[in-house]
Design goal:
alpha+beta, single chain, 3-stranded antiparallel β-sheet, binds zinc ion, 101 residues
């Protein structure tokens, strides 16, 4: 019978998987020219990573959340997920109300 992995093991596997994929991407990024990087940034800035349409920035308690104007996907900048997770329960409920579909 297979043993169910503990949460700690799952966390460890997810982190290892992320690091493995990140290394592959970093290698690709090193081969990109600065000019190509600039072009990509201009092309994708404030565009939904899923459907490519415009993102709308909404400020909630200092957390700048980008919500897609088409598919309503919600995107967070680096560090913002930690900030959201530290909200009080009532503020967290309001947060989800603001960004629910
Ligand atoms: Zn979208």
């Amino acid at each position: 019978m297979a043993k169910k992995p503990s949460e700690k093991e799952e966390e460890c596997f997810a982190r290892m998987e992320f690091e493995r994929k990140k290394k592959i991407q970093e290698e690709k990024h090193r081969r990109l020219l600065a000019e190509e990087k600039k072009k990509l940034a201009a092309l994708h800035y404030m565009r939904c990573p899923k459907c490519g349409l415009e993102l709308i920035e909404i400020d909630y308690k200092g957390i700048k959340v980008d919500k897609c104007s088409e598919c309503e996907g919600v995107w967070l900048d680096a560090g913002e997920l930690q900030t959201v997770s530290k909200l009080e329960q009532s503020a967290l409920e309001c947060f989800f109300d603001v960004f629910k579909k």
